[in-house]
Amino acid sequence: MPSVTVPELKAQLNLDHDLDDALLSHQIEAAEAHVASFIGSPLTDPLPAAIRQAVLMLAAYWYETRETAQAGGAPYAVPFGVHDLLQPHRVWVV
């Protein structure tokens, strides 16, 4: 079960309709999978604030930027600041 909820993501996006709830749920699951992969450990409940913010930022970004290419600009796979929020939680294997 996702740690971040659809209503939380809708608040992040300032959405007030239910038309995209299934898509938002998918974006949350994808963002949580990316975050868990980046930090090198499964996500636990409750999420630390920085990890919760990273999931919200990433899911919101992927909702708003649905294509890998855009005219007139260089889209990023991960929005600025997400990895900075996650770096202190990363498990390092040396």
From TrEMBL:
CDD domains: gp6. Gene3D superfamilies: Phage gp6-like head-tail connector protein. Pfam families: Phage_connect_1. It comes from the Bacteria. NCBIfam families: put_DNA_pack. This is Putative phage protein (Predicted DNA packaging)/uncharacterized phiE125 gp8 family phage protein.
